[in-house]
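Minutes, project huddle
Topic: does the predicted pose make sense with zinc ion bound?
PN asked that the exact inputs be recorded in the minutes so nobody has to dig through chat later. Recorded below.
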Amino acid sequence: MGLPAAAAPSVTVPTAQGQKCTTVQDAPTSGWTSYPELQRQLTRLESTSQGRVSVDSIGTTHRGRDILAARVGTGPKVIIVTGAIHGNERTGVEAQLSLLHRLSTGSPATEAILEEVTLVSIPMLNPDGLELNRRVNDIAWADTVDQFPQLAGAPPAWYYRGGSSSVSPGYDLNRDFHPDLDYVPQPGDLPGTQEGPGFYLNAESQALRDLYVDLQGEFGRVDAVVDLHHMGPCNVQTGGERDGRQVTVSVDYPPLGVNDGAAYLEEYPLLDQDKSRRYALAVMDGITDSYGAQSPLAGVVRYFHPDEREYAGQGRSAFALNGSASVLFEVRGQTQSFGQKQMGMLNKTVETGLLSLLKAMADGSVEDKDGDDFFDYPDYGWDTREGD
Ligand SMILES: [Zn+2]
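Predicted holo structure (tokens), as shared on screen:
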């Protein structure tokens, strides 16, 4: 018999209407899919799907783990979905595994989607970070310099975390992307800035970039890229039918600075922020319609995004600058600090959002959305604009 797991340090915060939310540092990971479990599940899925699902390694992490991608569907529209680029943000793993199982069954409803859409799903982009239950991956700057000798003497990238005697170093991988897909790291570009592009210093970001380029070659373009994350646990939506209730999931288009990233258009003319908002709406409307606007599963809001917010080094931004619609999910809370029931609800909401987007791509309805309707969704107190 093992001892009970030590309780993680936590703070319970009261919110509106008597709800409580708990912030947990280093939340425990039982109940969530580990990297070895992901390997087993995807292998089994591939073998039982009668050829519908194919699984490949698209790269190898610094710690030697395969970055696994599952492909399903034969349609001409292509979408990439990624989860756990931040290793302690795990609903994206669970929601994608559940979605892949659903799509592998050969039911008439899923076949109608898969005739129009090809999904490439990367449930766990950062398995090294996930196995350490932390945001960053697991590699030291010296190892990066070994791979890019031209960087000897340059300062580390600003999104590198140097670690300590007890914590190994690593990178925030969601700052390691550059819209120039042929970019090669240059010492004069380092350390870079929060607003600017990243440098493709890591196997994980390189693997996703290479996959994206391959799919561009195969399909002519990548229609959509979706990235699945977690946000803080204590946000309460302001406005809408669930005013004052906790956020379930917030959704966003890429943060590329004022006037919808106008400064980027000369160099990256394929950027289309309204298109990203149409795809985001397919997610948001799909969740709302599936559960009803009052449901706790349907607390869908706009993620923090003042007009000037700018993160060109995020994967979603780099791919949007290459013409893809780009949608971010931010689920409330980190790992399972809410217990099994709420964890299951959040996973379900994410899966429903993904499935809704696939359906809207398949039947073309995503293109009939009015991107301005995105702004009709509530926020959680950060948007002080006058209502319109
Ligand atoms: Zn994240």
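Observations noted during the meeting:
- The pocket of zinc ion is lined by residues 86, 89, 229 (CB under 6 Å).
- The CA atoms of residues 114 and 336 lie 32 Å apart.
No decisions taken; revisit at the next huddle.
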